[in-house]
Amino acid sequence: MDKTSKDSLPDMPVESERDQISQNIEAILKFYTREDQKISHSQRVLERISLFIGQPVFVGAILLFVALWTISNIVLHQLGLTAFDPPPFFWLQGIVGLGALLIMTVVLTKQNRLAKLEEQRAHLDLKVTLLTEQKAAKLIDLLEELRRDLPNVKNRHDPEAVALQQSMSPDLVLAALDEGGNSEERLKQSTETQEDMSSSQQTP
Q1: Residue 189 Cα to chain centre, angstroms
Q2: Short-list 114, 123, 125, CA closest to 38
Q3: Is residue 91 a contact partner of residue 85, using CB atoms and an 8 Å limit?
Q4: Distance between CA atoms of residues 144 and 203, nearest Å
Q5: pLDDT tens digit string along 31-77?
Q6: For the chain, which residues make up each domain, given as ranges?
Q7: What percentage of the chain reaches a pLDDT higher than 70?
Q8: SS3 content of the chain, % helix, strand, coil (to 5)
Q9: pLDDT the model gives residue 98
Q10: How far apart are CA 49 and CA 42, in angstroms?
Q11: Cα distance between residue 109 and residue 113, in whole Å
């Protein structure tokens, strides 16, 4: 093997790691691209409006409108002219109430879409977490098996390692979250049962 091939070998894991990172980033970008393409034209218009509503200039515009409306009616009344909305400004109250209703609808529309997207991400996080937990349990199982097979390592019973070898059941976790203490007891009993079964299998 020449020097050039030897020098290129250490770079292979680095390049592989970079490829994996690039694939993960590309998958995330594709996910957001698909979700963005699902947005309808009316939804985009409402979200642009919500962006403007969330800016401080919108608050200033509302205050300016209310001040001009109120001052105009007071000045017209002082000049002896007919005010288009005399105090207590019923038309102004109606316009403000309608505006508040429309603003609330626009904001809720955007929040509903974001909540749906967040729910999808939460499901993905849960799947990744369960997969990671299963992989960790498998690694512990392999390490325990290697420890038992090594002749120079004394074999001993490790209850913590036995417990960690067992992958947690998602159904039991959800039941514990939903039902509280009773489910926690059943979860503990199920874990102890799995430990006893593993111990009996390891005992020659």
Answers
A1: 32
A2: 114
A3: yes
A4: 14
A5: 778 878 888 888 888 888 888 888 899 999 999 999 999 999 999 98
A6: 43-126
A7: 67
A8: 80, 0, 20
A9: 95
A10: 11
A11: 7
